[in-house]
Amino acid sequence: MSSMTANPILPAEPAQWDGTVPEIAPSLEESRRYCEWLAVTHYENFPVATWLLPAPLRRHFYSVYAYCRWADDLADETGDPERSVWLLERWEQELRACYAGEPRHAVFVALREAVTQCRIPREPFQDLITAFRQDQVRQRYATYQDLLEYCRYSANPVGRLVLYLCGYREPELQRLSDYTCTALQLANFWQDVRRDYAMGRVYIPQDMMQWYGCAEEELAAGRCTESFRGLMKDLVDRTRQMFGRGMPLVEKVDRRLAVDIELFSRGGMEILRLIERQNYDVLAKRPKLDRAGMGLLLGTVLIGRMFSRRSLPEQ
Predict the structure, then answer these.
(1) pLDDT tens digits in sequence order for the chain, 315 residues long
(2) How large is the C-alpha radius of gyration of the chain?
(3) Which of 6, 75, 89, 206 sits at 20 to 30 Å (Cα–Cα) from 42?
(4) Whole-angstrom Cα distance, residue 39 to residue 35?
(5) Distance between CA atoms of 304 and 118, rounded to whole angstroms?
(6) What Cα–Cα distance (Å) separates residue 53 from each residue in 142, 219, 254, 259, 277?
(7) What is the spatial distance between Cα 299 and Cα 281, in angstroms, rounded to a whole number?
(8) CB neighbours of 155 closer than 8 A, spacing ≥ 6?
(9) Which helix H or strand E contains 10, and what residues bound it?
(10) 287 Cβ partners below 8 Å, 6+ apart?
């Protein structure tokens, strides 16, 4: 474990947290350093735009990432749904303290600065907790609409937080961001069908599985039938259309943020293309974009955005 976490006033790894917070909160500077450490050491594909943004804004990205990372780990890394629910309740209490101006956990000390300077409402942070809590009690989704409603809480808040951080508050931009974030979440689901099933979760809508004549036994056996290929094609096509609906956002934001949005969108669409290339068999092999592919995407996006003059709005 990094020496950064050895300081007793800084928190342990999320999965080892016991739900307590220090009596005396760490300083803002210590909290900033912790969040930066967590971001740069735990997420090797951290959004490119964070390195292009001004340093003060980059700090806020780190604290928001730290919040999301902690909440995600509290939900998925403890191995005990009941304990996860309890820890998420403690996390929610500290979120309330943050908005009341009384945070004591290092993540929330840093997050308080972002919340106040960027005027971020509590709702997107709360929505993420709602999604993580739902993961502990719900492992199946009856309809495609049910799944989209889940993405409203699990994925869309992240995009809205990024917009708030960068000074964008327009409902139209939030709507476009929602399309992109939901599409990214769905692409991840189709990429990880076998792995999610091993964790007890099936994100493929139950009514669509029934319509195509697919049974969960096929997922368990890793058997890709023609019916399953047809089902995955349907899901991939729907997801690609959703990416298309969100892409206009790229032309409406600062070029530095546009790099991130376009990179992630095109990366998600590339995952869909890889699924198609392996004839929709995501059960035998997990489609994954390699470093060379990511580098090519990044170069293409950076060149395309190089001459854009759009700048970040005033905070």
Answers:
(1) 344 444 545 666 787 888 899 889 999 999 999 998 888 886 544 454 456 677 778 899 999 999 999 999 999 888 899 999 999 999 999 999 999 999 999 999 999 999 999 999 999 999 999 999 999 999 999 999 999 999 999 999 999 999 999 999 999 999 999 999 999 999 999 999 999 999 899 999 999 999 999 999 999 999 999 999 999 999 999 999 999 999 999 999 988 788 888 888 888 999 999 999 999 999 999 988 765 555 554 445 444 544 454 555 555
(2) 20
(3) 89
(4) 6
(5) 28
(6) 41, 43, 10, 11, 36
(7) 29
(8) 181, 182, 184, 185
(9) none
(10) 191, 271, 274, 275, 277, 278
Which tokens in the block code for residue 12? 């342990």
Structure tokens that stand for 121 in this block: 């409402």
Q: What is the DSSP letter of 235?
A: H
- Burial class, 51, CB count within 10 angstroms (exposed 0-12 / middle 13-18 / buried 19+): exposed
Residue 31, amino acid = S
Question: Which of 36, 42, 16 lies closest to 106, judged by CA?
Answer: 36
Q: Within 10 A of 189 (CB to CB), how many other CB atoms are there?
A: 21
Residue type, 228: F
> And the tokens for 78?
């403890």
- Tokens 């769905």, located at residue: 186
Sequential DSSP letters for 55-106:
HHHHHHHHHHHHHHHHHHHHHHSSS-HHHHHHHHHHHHHHHHHHHTT---SH
Q: What token pair was written down for 209?
A: 């599985």
CA dist 20 → 73, 94, 99 (Å): 16, 10, 18
